[in-house]
Specification:
The chain is mainly alpha-helical and 57 residues long. The chain has one helix at 6-31.
């Protein structure tokens, strides 16, 4: 038989990858949620002032 069975090898490999991704994802979600945030997201909104990047055509 020249075939490798799917279940024990690829299933374990896929589960290992899913756990590694879940661990890395959960580190960003729970310990560094603002790591990829932009500083403009932390400015307080002022409804009376138009942002500088919005200009008329």
């Amino acid at each position: 038989m020249d075939k490798i069975s799917f279940h024990p090898y690829f299933t374990v490999k896929d589960i290992y990858g899913a756990v590694a991704f879940g661990l890395l994802f959960s580190l960003f979600v729970f310990f560094a949620p603002n790591y990829m945030g932009h500083p403009d997201n932390y400015l307080e909104a002022d409804p009376m002032v138009t942002p500088t990047h919005i200009v008329p055509e």
